[in-house]
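User: Please predict the structure of the protein below. I'd like the answer in structure-token form so I can feed it into my own downstream comparison script.

Assistant: Understood. Taking the following sequence of 249 residues as input:
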Amino acid sequence: MKKNKKLYGLIGKNISYSFSPTYFKNKFNNLQLKNHKYKIFDLETIEELPNLLTEKNENLKGLNVTIPYKETVIPFLNKLSKNATTIGAVNTIKISKSGKTKGYNTDYYGFKKSLEPLLKKQHKKALILGTGGASKAVAFALKKLKIEYDFVSREPNEYQFSYAELNHEIFDEYTIIINTTPIGTTPNVDQAPELDYTLFTKQHIAYDLIYNPEETLFLKLARKNGAQTKNGLEMLELQAEKAWKIWNE
């Protein structure tokens, strides 16, 4: 029986709220995989990963990676997929029988598939709020969709917009606005990226990678001004299914 046991998990920091354990628990129940388990591994620092991989977790077959380790996990892995190398961020790790690790990025797939049905002819350019690991996957997906994009940052470099710069002229040009920051996540539901929400119109898509709460303040304010809105739940479900496929290839 022990040989048949398979353990999967999620690494991140302060992640007790996470979607993944419930999702995979339900999946294992539906597939009647009684020997499969999914655990949260809340790591204080990414330096704890090597210990996690060696101590008492011999049945560990795969991991998901979330904030804030999608980029810093890379030096701890044996190999990267081509897409993860290009993106520069990892959210899925496959662990071989010999204990070797390979990093993948399924975030870009989940985002791309969930955004595509919303796109109309005016959606040619996007603003990505935030510059972390998730933003890199979003940028890669937009590139695949042939949508131009620029980043918005609280500490912008010469190639990025600051939040204060965003005005009617910019919003007329960029009709997809994507929040990849954690601002507005439960329990901080009264927070939102600092921008002028009256700039949103019926021509805009407002997409928030956050899924808890179901409607963030960012989405609420954008919707009030006519924008089409979407949260990150479908993206998460799609990326989770892609991760499951990778673990079982």
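That's the full token string. The longest strand covers residues 6-12.
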